[in-house]
Design brief:
CATH architecture of the largest domain: 2-Layer Sandwich
Distance between the termini: 18 Å
Strand content: 25-35%
Structural class: alpha+beta
CATH superfamily of the largest domain: Pseudouridine synthase
Oligomer: single chain
Shape: globular
Helix content: 10-25%
CATH topology of the largest domain: Pseudouridine synthase
Number of helices: 8
């Protein structure tokens, strides 16, 4: 997403506490305007119904989005029993009903089968592409009746509360590509009833959490200098788990020009040998990120060069 002429060279991450009723694209546009940033993007779509952590990358931080999007995500969500919805959430029309309501014991007994590496069918109303078109567009036309299951990972799934016979509240930590709406739907079917997501709040994406988040209202209240508020996090924040390798001036220049670099110091050779070929590292100069690079044949080659 590119900005209007005159936009500022702002680089870093903003953790937005997205409100309900706002699409991720509109949320990105609002943050981009607030910072007058040249470009922006997000790491992990949140449906309009959902609230919570939406990490938004500004400027060169957009080059680190894949590393954040690939991280685990933590959700708290409420499942409404007794109805299936076309969208698997509260926004869709009712397509099936059931009078059965599961007990807490039955719910807890069912949860282990949804933890670990599982096969999951994405919701028909999703952004997955089918023959070049988004599944939700096809679903609106009645042209799709079920996407193919695919492997996903659920790291943790726990019953947090059961406020009534009609509802249960869960917390789930999931890997990339996992749909909470599908979890709710499949839980309902496993419990011989129906279920959909009535409420959904994302608590974390990788290292980004609600503790770092700011609302759009608070961001707007900062006026014309939100970058000075402390809510613009360094782009390196997204890369804390990635090993770093310090470069010389000449090596940094070569890497910026797209050339592979062979480290000269014995300790660098040892470091790369331990990391292993194919791994991604942060190449730095004076503590500043120069590029994301891949370890290859005892050296490194640039994947994404940073221009900050």
């Amino acid at each position: 997403m590119r900005a209007k002429p005159g936009a500022a060279p702002v680089h870093g991450w903003v953790v937005l506490d997205k409100p309900a009723g706002l699409s991720s694209a509109r949320a990105v546009a609002a943050v981009k305007r607030a910072f007058n940033a040249a470009k922006a993007g997000h790491a992990g779509t949140l449906d309009p119904l959902a609230t919570g952590v939406l990490p938004i990358a500004l400027g060169e931080a957009t080059k680190t989005v894949p590393f954040v999007a690939a991280g685990a995500k933590l959700y708290r969500f409420t499942v409404q029993w007794g109805e299936a919805r076309a969208t698997d959430d509260a926004e869709g029309e009712v397509i099936a009903t059931s009078d059965r309501r599961p007990t807490e014991a039955e719910i807890r007994t069912a949860l282990p089968r949804f933890v670990g590496a599982i096969s999951q069918r994405p919701p028909d109303f999703s952004a997955i592409k089918v023959a070049g078109r988004r599944a939700y567009a096809l679903a609106r036309q009645g042209a799709i009746t079920g996407l193919a299951p695919r492997p996903v990972e659920v790291l943790r799934l726990e019953l947090a509360a059961a406020p009534s016979l009609d509802q249960a509240v869960f917390e789930a930590e999931v890997g990339p590509g996992t749909y909470v709406r599908s979890l709710a739907r499949d839980l309902g079917e496993a419990l011989e009833t129906r279920g959909f997501v009535a409420e959904l709040r994302r608590l974390a994406v990788g290292r980004f959490t609600l503790k770092q988040a700011i609302s759009l209202d608070k961001l707007a209240a900062l006026g014309h200098s939100p970058a000075a508020s402390g809510h613009l996090l360094p782009l390196e924040t997204a890369l804390d788990d990635i090993p770093a390798l310090a470069l010389t001036e000449d090596q940094a220049k070569a890497l910026r020009c797209g050339q592979a670099v062979t480290p000269l110091r014995p300790q660098d050779w040892a470091c790369l040998s331990q990391i292993g070929n194919g791994a991604t590292i942060c190449a730095t100069l004076g503590g500043k990120l120069v590029a994301l690079a891949e370890v290859a044949a005892g050296g490194i080659r640039p994947l994404r060069v940073l221009n900050t």
